[in-house]
Structure formats: C-alpha cells, structure tokens
Amino acid sequence: MSPLPAPGAMLAELVALPSASSFDPAADRGNRAVVDRLAAWAADLGAAVRVQELEGPAPRANLVATFGAGTDGLVLAGHADTVAADPAAWATDPLRLVETDGRLYGLGACDMKGFFVAALHAAARFDPARLRAPLHLVATADEECAMEGIRALAASGPPRARWAVVGEPTGLTPVRAHKGVLMERLVLHGREAHSSDPAAGASAIEGMVRALAALLAWRDELQAAHRDAAFAVPTPTLHPGVLRGGDRPNRVCARCELQFDLRSLPGMDPEELRVEICARVARAVAGTGLRFELRSLYPGTPALATPPDAALVRAAEEICGRPATTAAYGTEAPWFAAAGMETIVLGPGDIARAHRPDEFVTVDELDAAADLYARLIGRACGGTAEGGGRHAAAGGARSRRSSPPRGTDRRRRPASGPSRRRRAACRTARTARCGRRGGRGRPDCTTTPARGGSSPGRCGSRRSRPPRSRCRRNTCAVWRRRPGCGTGRPPVRRALAVRRHPC
User: Fold this and answer.
1) Could you give the percent of the chain with pLDDT greater than 90?
2) Three-state DSSP class for 67?
3) CA 475 from chain center: how many Å?
4) Is pLDDT of 501 > 90?
5) CATH code for the part of the protein at 7-178+303-381
6) DSSP state, 332?
7) What tens digit of pLDDT does each residue of 76-102 get?
C-alpha cells in the first residue's frame, strides 16, 4: 500500500481538476476526473472501489470506496463537483492552490474538496483488514445543480451503514438538522395590446402582482403555523428572487416570470407545499384571462432531522467538544437518513466562504477534521488508528512545523510497541532512584534525603530526582506494561507527571 501524498499536495491536485456543475452546458465540466483521482488514492489504501457513471453532457460519476467488510460501519460522504467560477473575480487563479498564512485558496478548497483530503488521511490511519465494520467513502456528482448524483446512488442502492457523516463545511460543528429547499418558477401568459387601451390585452405583470401577494400572504400563514426554535431562523421562509416581465412601457406585457425559494422545516411535506402553491396561484389569477405554468427549477432537497439524543449526535458532540446545531441550507444528508442511517453534517471550513471568490480552507481545519474523522471511524468501525505507520502521509500540509507531522493524532502516541522515547523514559526513571547517573536504582539506596524527607521507593537526592516530564514510578502505561522497571512499592501519584509524560 502506498502512502498518501501530503494533504496540501492532495488538495492542490484536486483543485487543479476542473469539476464545475452548471445548468449552462458551456460551463458544465463534470466531476469524473476528481472521482478517478479519489478512486486511485482509495485503492492504494486497500479499498474496494465502485464507480457509478451518470448520463449527461459532461463526464460525471459517483464513487463508493469501501474499506473492510461486514455490516453497520460508517459512511463519509461529499460531493466531488464545484460551482462555476469567474476567474476575473478571484485574486488568484481559482484552479491553482495558493497557501497564504495557513490558508489554502482555490475553487472547491472549502466546498468541498478539502473534506476528501481529511477523510482519506483519516482512513489511512487504519488497516482495512482489522476493521470490525466497514468504512465507506462516497463522492457524488451534480450536487451544485440538481443533485442527480445522490439521487442515482439512492436509486441503485447506497452503501449500508449505521452512521453517515456528510462533510459539508460546518466549522467542525456537528449539524444534526437542516431545512428543506424548494426552488420554483411561475410563468404567467397574457395578451399583448397597446398601452392606450389596456383592456384590449391581459397584463401578465398585473397578474403576477396578484399571484405574488397571494404567495406572501401564504408565507405569513406558514410562519404562524410552523416554528422550530432549534433553528436560527425558526420559521419557514419564502423569498421571491427573480422577477422578469415586459419589454416596453407602452405595451401590455404578455409574459411575466417569477422564481422563488422556499425553505421548509422538518416535517413539512414538499409535495403538499407544491400543491398548495398551485392552488393559491390559481385562485389569485382566476378571472383575469391569464394562463400560468408552475415548474420546479430542480426536484428539491428534503429536510434533515436527526434526533438530538441519537448515538451519532452524542458521539460527535463528545469528539468535537461542542453541541450539535442546525442549518438553513440543504445537503445530501437526507438521502442517507432515508436509507436508515443516523446522519449528521460535519466538515472543515465555513459555509460562508463557499460559492464566492477567494474560497479557502485552513491547514489547521484539515488537520482537525482528519483527527475527528479518525475518532469517528474508531467508534463506528472498531479499528485502532495507527497514527503514522505504513499508511501515513509522506509529509505534512506545510513544512515549517516538523514535529509532530500533520495528519498525526497529537493526543496520544501509537500503542503498537515500545518506541525509542518510551525505552529512554523507562531507563531514566529506573536510574533516577540513586544519586549517580549510572546507578542501578537499588532499593536500599542510602543517599541523603532531600529537604522535606524521603518518599517511599524513591531516592532522596535532589539531583537524582527525575525531571518533571519523565515517568515517576508506576504513574503511566510504561510502568504498568514493564513492571521490571519499578521496585514494586506504591507509586508516587503525580498528575503533572502523567500529563507531561512523553507517552
């Protein structure tokens, strides 16, 4: 198995691969190149790789890379496409990763190619053969447009797992619920006439005024009937975002178009909302001589609602050290929840940086995300992180910090056998019981006690005391695992010594 490249090098390679999704065929690039690169890295780590091709004008595909075998386990999922970018609006080339003061700038760095770098480096800490439950890495297509990738994956059968984490940028705060999204287009068709005789025509603009007033009145009713205090905006929202109609002030307008966005709370049925929209518009334009069309701009995104007491939510809160929250934007998470998995959204970066020029993710965010995902893998899949063995990255995301390497769990050293530092600490503690550096630590040592008297099982010489950062007799795993180092006497319990021990 080949080691992964450094995180910065991986992200630079992903950013350089165009993967924009767009309703404009001229701007649509597809995500196949990114999927192929992710598949190669996952295969190098021992994953079984499955690629699902999608139809379309640009090459698009989904990826499912499975580490280990069995049931339950964990899904780490994200989308492998980006929005289209205007290079003129960026300070740098959007397809070239640039690092400045720990920030990695590039199209998709935050939303959400950085997630795949962190997820793969987390997976690299585990031996797939030793996982008791599988880990699935999922990459989808077309999330930034119609979410056709996740819909195709759900139709063909998503991977089965107990938990699913969608790595959209959340600032590494668990998101357990988000609103549903509908985007609709209403078109009114009337009849042209000269403005000197408006009654000879049928104004689509005047009809749209009636229809929009009806929709806004319905919005007030929805907000009075539905409320969830868990959300920052606790009510449903309806926002008219695009209005087009008319071409001359002296001509009765024959066509007017409205595009609007509706964000629903969990528990509100999208199809029922669409039926109600149609009924409200029909009543508003009745008797005007106008004809209307109501179509969805895309099929919509369901709401997500994972209970706050779900096992995954509790585990994520414990690992992240912060309570789960909610979001107003939509993600692919509801499709995993519909497949029976406890699902949250949790990823590096900030959603406020997405879909805008000079998008970035920080090096520290990628490191922290890899650590969090590794701990979740350990919880869900039962493996033990190796923390830097044969699957470790060949270097870190930046070179100015040499130890510990980035991508390594800083909270504890690997438990795969005594290292050179452990052996050195053990020897130091063993020889520190007498006044000479080369002493054997005889239990009957008679060196003059230091001020304050002697302690059981420790030489009294002040200069013979071990440094604070060294082991103090039976106070860490080194002494418990290597009882020959001690004298068998009661340990000197020093919390400071345990906390600062190099183990």
Assistant:
1) 73
2) strand
3) 38
4) no
5) 3.40.630.10
6) S
7) 999 999 999 999 999 999 999 999 999
Tens digit of pLDDT for each residue in 440-476? 444 444 333 334 443 344 444 344 444 444 444 333 4
Question: What is the domain partition of the chain in residue ranges?
Answer: 7-178+303-381, 180-296, 420-500
Supply the DSSP string of 143-163, one letter for each residue: TTTT-HHHHHHHHH-PPP-SE
What's the whole-model pTM score? 0.75
Q: How far apart are CA 92 and CA 374, in angstroms?
A: 33
For 474, the token pair is 């039976």
Strands 74-79 and 135-140: parallel
From 81, 127, 350, 365, the catalytic residue:
81
CB-based contact 135:68 (threshold 8 Å)? yes
Q: Which ranges of 55-147 would DSSP assign to H, the alpha helix?
A: 114-123
Neighbour tally for 500: CB within 10 Å: 13
Query: Could you give the 3-state DSSP secondary structure of residue 116?
Result: helix
CA distance 115 to 347: 6
Residue 191 CB partners (closer than 8 Å, separation 6+) = 201, 202, 252, 254, 289
Rounded Cα distance between 195 and 201, Å, is 9
Judge contact between 1 and 17, C-beta under 8 A: no
Q: What is the pLDDT of residues 365-380, one digit of tens each?
A: 999 999 999 999 999 9
Task: Please enumerate, as own/partner, the contacts of 395-402 that have beta carbons within 8 Å and a separation of 24 or more.
Answer: 395/5, 395/6, 395/9, 396/6, 396/7, 396/8, 397/6, 397/7, 397/8, 397/11, 397/104, 397/363, 397/366, 397/367, 398/8, 398/99, 398/102, 398/363
Specify which residues 3 forms β-bridges with. Answer: none
| Marked catalytic residue, from 28, 143, 168, 332 | 143
Tell which residue, 485, 484, 479, has the closest CA to residue 497.
479
**Does 143 qualify as catalytic in the annotation?**
yes
Query: In this predicted structure, what is the pLDDT of residue 256?
Result: 98
**Domain covering 180-296 assigned CATH 3.30.70.360 in the classification:** yes
The pLDDT of residue 421 is above 70:
no
Distance separating alpha carbons of residues 332 and 78, to the nearest angstrom: 8
Residue 1: predicted pLDDT: 61
Q: Could you confirm whether 81 is annotated as catalytic?
A: yes
CA 75: distance to chain centroid? 12
CB 97 within 8 A of CB 8: yes
Cis link prior to 174 (omega < 30° from 0)?
Answer: no
